[in-house]
């Protein structure tokens, strides 16, 4: 994690060796830290979940998605619901 012009740069290295770099404010980082602490998950898990949830919400609108992509979207939904459930249990 590095700091540049009042933003924090976080490089996340998921297990498949893809590096994601994003600039977020210290406020956003504090929110992420609070959520991950409350839910008992790592920041990388939170970021992965956020990406999956965003993709699910964007792609679910497309009624033409089927086959392998439909399975992936359903998996994203399932994983998101599990994580949200886990967070609700801890609150």
Walk me through the structure.
The structure is a single chain. By secondary structure, this protein is an alpha+beta fold. The longest helix is centred in the last third of the chain and has 24 residues, at 67-90. α2 packs across α3 (67-90). The mean pLDDT is 74. The chain has 3 helices and 3 strands; from the N terminus they run βββααα. It has one domain (2-90).
Please summarize what this structure is.
Helix content is 60%, strand content 16%. It is an alpha+beta fold and 91 residues long.
Number of domains: 1
How would you describe the shape? globular
Residue stretches low in confidence (pLDDT < 50, at least 5 long) are none
- Counted by DSSP, the helix tally is 3
Structural class, please?
alpha+beta
Mean pLDDT, nearest integer? 74
Range of helix content: 55-70%
The whole-angstrom Rg is: 15 Å
**Biggest beta sheet summary:** 3 strands, antiparallel
Strand order, main sheet: write it out: 1-2-3
Strand content range: 15-25%
Q: What pattern of helices and strands is seen along the backbone?
A: EEEHHH
Tally of DSSP β-strands: 3
N-to-C span: 29 Å
């Amino acid at each position: 994690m590095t700091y540049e012009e009042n933003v924090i740069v976080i490089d996340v290295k998921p297990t498949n060796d893809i590096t994601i770099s994003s600039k977020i404010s210290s406020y956003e980082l504090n929110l992420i830290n609070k959520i991950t602490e409350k839910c008992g998950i790592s920041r990388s898990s939170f970021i992965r979940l956020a990406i999956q949830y965003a993709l699910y919400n964007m792609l679910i609108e497309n009624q033409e998605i089927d086959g392998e992509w439909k399975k992936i979207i359903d998996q994203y939904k399932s994983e998101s619901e599990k994580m949200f459930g886990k967070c609700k249990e801890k609150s």
